[in-house]
Amino acid sequence: xxxxIGIFGYGNLGRGIESAIRQNxxxxxxxxxxxxxxxxxxxxxxxxxxxxxDEAEKHxxxxxxxxxCGGSATDLPEQTPALAKLFNVVDSxxxxxxxxxxxxxVNAAAEQSGKVAVISVGWDPGMFSLNRLYAGAVLPxxxxxxxxxxxxxxxxxxxxxxxxxVADAKQYTIPVDxxxxxxxxxxxxxxxxxxxxxxxxxxxxxxxADLARIENxxxxxxxxxxxxxxxxxxxTKEELDRDHSGIPHGGFVIRxxxxxxxxxHNHVIEYSLKLDSNPEFTSSVIxxxxxxxxxxxxxxxxxxxxxxxxxPVLLSPESAEELRKRLL
Amino acid sequence: xxxxIGIFGYGNLGRGIESAIRQNxxxxxxxxxxxxxxxxxxxxxxxxxxxxxDEAEKHxxxxxxxxxCGGSATDLPEQTPALAKLFNVVDSxxxxxxxxxxxxxVNAAAEQSGKVAVISVGWDPGMFSLNRLYAGAVLPxxxxxxxxxxxxxxxxxxxxxxxxxVADAKQYTIPVDxxxxxxxxxxxxxxxxxxxxxxxxxxxxxxxADLARIENxxxxxxxxxxxxxxxxxxxTKEELDRDHSGIPHGGFVIRxxxxxxxxxHNHVIEYSLKLDSNPEFTSSVIxxxxxxxxxxxxxxxxxxxxxxxxxPVLLSPESAEELRKRLL
Lengths: 328, 328
Hints:
Two copies of one chain form a homodimer.
Chain A: E1 3-8, H1 12-21, E2 27-34, E3 50-52, E4 65-68, H2 75-84, E5 88-90, H3 99-113, E6 116-118, H4 127-138, E7 142-148, E8 151-152, H5 154-161, E9 166-175, H6 177-184, H7 193-196, E10 197-205, H8 211-219, E11 229-234, H9 237-243, E12 249-259, E13 265-275, H10 278-298, E14 303-305, H11 320-327
Parallel strand pairs in A: 1-2, 1-4, 2-3, 4-5, 5-6, 6-14, 10-11
Antiparallel strand pairs in A: 7-12, 8-9, 9-10, 12-13
């Protein structure tokens, strides 16, 4: 029987979820919920209703897993615990420092309702976290490194757009090759922020703006750019739209460690992602965990989980027998 | 409380387990079991007893997890089910085609005894299998590829040693760079055996042996070499011992796949290992799963499991709270 999925919030991530569901025969999109007037929201899947977010409660019996597609800053801290009182839920909460607090709030709600809630699903947090866990458990005497990119950082792009005289901007985070190579060598380097990543900015200035001032404001912006080598290119709006409209991302989790009675052998474990579309890949991870959430709840489990807790076998539509035969 | 580990069989893998246990504060080596006369087996850890394999039953109360270090061809199919009647066990059974049969035999024994048995642990099967599962679940419309090496194949080295006139030999399996690049490009190439890997052989010939005949016998050997581009070097015993005494290995699991309403976005997931010591890395994976086996059994679980079944959080000595805080 197909698992009925609800999408709560229809932006980039919601659209990614919609398209990921179509790639999985055992999942069905049951409804989309939005805070906008539902009649103004046009979705891609034929015959699927769009409801107002306030109506979600009425559809508790029609939805096996609700996928929360709001933002981590203000939406999810409120919405995920609220919806976990009614539904199995999956979210992609990614404010790292606040995950323990979010976990506690969601867990309380899901324990009470007897539902399963999976939080912080995606690739970081998500697949990268898993890889840090596996690699760390296997090589206890070692060190791991995470590099992000090449990819678009929405936060940094937004920060540039807030500068006076900037019409539009896109910022790419880029891992420094020399740092990657140093890590892979097993030398366990101590790397500064500047040594690990550089930041490349494509900026459309408003007419008559002072380019030198804008460039200086970007490069000296605390937290966002001051600690990095930053490259600034001024381009036209047409160039920005033509060459920089995608949302690529990716990165690397590398752990090196030693084994042997005298630590005489080195090992390198490397996991990397190269993604054309950050929201679509995140969505693809989320729908696999939505499958797991439905299965866990069907087995009688409840409460908040993360990718670290969930048996891998639950992510695949194939049976355990098939997977053992094909993958081991 | 420390988890008490037994080692059943003291060869390369048994020694790797012994050294891996020393890297994990919550694990203790309780005893080594051997089919040789125990007094002839000298181990590295002070104060740990060596018993004859036949005595294992007497020590059932002193061992939380028995790690099976025999070979897949004849030892493990017999030993793992037998020992699972008495102990939680972990093995590294790697005869891919016989895993379903081995699973069934071990599961019957472990269900009956109420113990947990984890089979086929290591890196392939093992970490590579996990990565095929995760990547396949996340990118259902895609294709995955496994490459092995650069590393020593014991089976191929043995096959060369059986040729008349060969004194010793070491064979390296090497992934072909052009094939790796074609896969990473997302073009989903169909690759032949020959296109994926090449085989490099370092051979010590007996005095007066016909080198041309040996080279020809290697290159035309069915199953082992005939389907590959094979390079043969004749070297001296001293060169072999000096330059080829290690047991390095590694490899790559790469999945590429598409997302989007029209499959318009490509993604590449890549996992790779570069290992100085194949048996020590395999051992490091096994001891992490021994920890998981002890924890699962303490929770009341029983029966046969594989890496695909086990929640990642159980592999780490850290608590779930610490891991959420540090890794998500």
